[in-house]
TrEMBL record:
GO molecular function: guanyl-nucleotide exchange factor activity; translation elongation factor activity
Feature: compositional bias, Low complexity: 67-80
Full protein name: Elongation factor 1-delta
Organism: Lygus hesperus
Translation elongation factor EF1B beta/delta subunit guanine nucleotide exchange domain residues: 141-227
Length: 227
């Protein structure tokens, strides 16, 4: 597109040249009228055989003719300038359009929009990753009920439970317990515990309890549930 300043400049030049052309045409008209009068006078003098008057008028006629010729030339030059300026005014937008052909304004806007969309996407991914990292990881746990059996009815069940609860490990939490009758006055210790699957092995827990040989005969799993 043509810049506003270029359009104003060309318009001003055209107006100036048109004014000069009008003034020159007016002067040419005046000189033409004067020349016509001089020619009439010369003819009158020739008819009256007034050679002196003819000699006096002829130089003036020549001067007038030269002035008319100069004025006509100037007018032609002004007209040519007006045409040239008009041609420049017409060709300048075309040139500007040619320059604009190499610039894809919509492509620039599209690139900016794509860049902005990528920034928003990256920001959202970063926020999601940060939120996910703050969320505690799910820990797999199991709830287990153990049946701990004594040797006989003379086994101190309270002491046996105390020894069992003394087993401590990371990921092991003891819960409620009770005595369940078996037969012949013998009771078993039924005790609940919660373990983290990645930290506590059920086999290890059973073997560790069975190592309390003075009180424990065997250990069985009464119930096993994933939490």
């Amino acid at each position: 597109m043509t810049s506003p300043s270029a359009v104003i400049e060309v318009s001003n030049r055209l107006n100036s040249l048109e004014k000069e052309n009008t003034d020159l045409k007016q002067k040419v008209g005046e000189l033409t009228a004067l020349l016509a009068k001089l020619e009439i006078r010369v003819k009158d003098l020739e008819k009256g055989n007034k050679s002196v008057g003819l000699q006096a008028v002829t130089p003036n006629s020549t001067v007038a003719s030269q002035a008319v010729a100069k004025a006509a030339h100037a007018g032609s030059q002004a007209s040519a300038n007006v045409k040239t300026a008009g041609s420049q005014a017409k060709s300048q937008p075309a040139k500007q359009d040619d320059d604009d052909d190499g610039v894809d304004l919509f492509a620039s806007e599209s690139e900016e929009e794509d860049e902005e969309a990528n920034k928003i996407k990256e920001q959202r991914l970063a926020e999601y990753a940060a939120k996910k990292s703050k969320k505690p990881a799910l820990i797999a746990k199991s709830s287990i009920i153990l049946d701990v059996k004594p040797w006989d009815d003379e086994t101190d069940m309270k002491e046996m439970e105390k020894r069992v609860r003394q087993i401590e490990a990371d990921g092991l939490l003891w819960g409620a317990s009770k005595l369940v009758p078996l037969a012949y006055g013998i009771h078993k210790l039924q005790i609940n515990c919660v373990v983290e699957d990645d930290k506590i092995s059920i086999d290890w827990l059973q073997e560790t309890i069975e190592e309390i040989e003075d009180y424990v005969q065997s250990v069985d799993i009464a119930a096993f549930n994933k939490i």
